[in-house]
Amino acid sequence: MFSKEVQDRIRDEFSSLGDVVFLSASFTTMPPRCVQDVLPAYTRKYLATLSNEEWEKWTGEEHAVCRREIAGLLGCDEDEIALTKNTTEGIGIIASGYPWTPGKNIVLPQAEHAASLHSWIPLTEKGIELRPVIPADPAHGITADEIIAATDENTEAVLTSIIQFWDGAFIDMEKLGRYCRDKGILLVVDAIQAVGRMKVDVRKWNIDFLACGGHKGLLSMDCSGGILYCRRGLEKKITPPYNGMDGTTKRSHIEEPGGCVLHYREGARKLEGGSSNTLGAMMFAEACRFIDSIGIAEIEAHILGLEDILLEKLGDLRQIRVAGDKRSGIVMLDFAPEERERVIGILNRYKINATVRADNVRFCISMVNREEHMDILAKAIEEIRN
Q1: Where are the alpha helices (DSSP H) in 52-86?
Q2: Contact at 8 Å (CB) between 250 and 263?
Q3: CATH number for the domain formed by residue range(s) 4-23+295-385
Q4: Which region holds residue 234: left if phi is over 0, alpha if psi is between -120 and 50, else beta?
Q5: What is the distance of C-alpha 49 from the center of its chain?
Q6: How would residue 273 be classed by pLDDT, with cut points 50, 70 and 90?
Q7: DSSP 3-state assignment of 332?
Q8: Domain ranges of the chain
Q9: What angle (nearest 5°) sits at the alpha carbon of residue 375, between those of residues 11 and 214?
Q10: DSSP string of 236-297?
């Protein structure tokens, strides 16, 4: 759990939340003040910079800083990071650009988020089988063992979110990654529910490709863009779906000798298309510095500590679900569909912001939460249950 000093600092950074019990970090986030301050700083620089050369030099430096900060958070090198538009674009670059083998299969959770799933569906027209995995116990959520059991000698890749969007199931990525690496299976992950909330180590987990948007655990806004991690060397196998100045080293002219040859940048930057999102890069870098100043291990421990407190307060409630191989700080509450408006009314009365679906609500604990928030949430859940 955070010290009082750290909690006071976080409360100040997230003062825009006021007295709202914010439990919707798995849907979006409110950026801390330090990230909010990036927008006017970027605007001032934009308006003050008239020279093309000065602008290109400055934006290039900001992009490099962002890649370095993101790499530090993920445990990789900055040349393995590409700047993208969002999670979907990162996943889509891999799905459409890698030379997948007809007759092979790709294993993925049946309930995978559309941001990941939709990029793979066109591959079925090219002879690639998509093999969905349905958890044996939906209330418990999908596990690494179930994904592993669905693979065979024709599996070319496993696609999965580290933490499932639907129920917060946290998959044992170390076990899954070790299996995939041993079997020569590519591991492609959507990390948006995990990065910034839980410690993610792409090396330790043997992840080959990782995509993540910035508007959740990375504490930025939806204008911030996304990032793509590509394990060194694998970028050489990918044909980017689009090419521009940022991903290449020289401008080609069709009519000159060799003008139809693309000269790609080294590393993951090959996968960046045209002009990268400088405002987003600045937001990412500032968010990473803020996360690092607290410590990602400390953030994870704080979140899981609050989940312990909540579960202890709730006791054995049938409606509460905690899914996956590991706990993720996400708790689900089921209710009858006809109770939805009543549930929303109770949550509003307690000033709880959470993700309400047709027959369940997802509560996602994050660094902004405190022990008193768990008291309020426990009271609201008890009232809903009764």
Answers
A1: 52-74
A2: yes
A3: 3.90.1150.10
A4: alpha
A5: 33
A6: confident
A7: strand
A8: 4-23+295-385, 40-293
A9: 45
A10: GG---SS--TTTBSS---TTSTTTT---BPSGGGGG--SS--HHHHHHHHHHHHHHHHH-HH
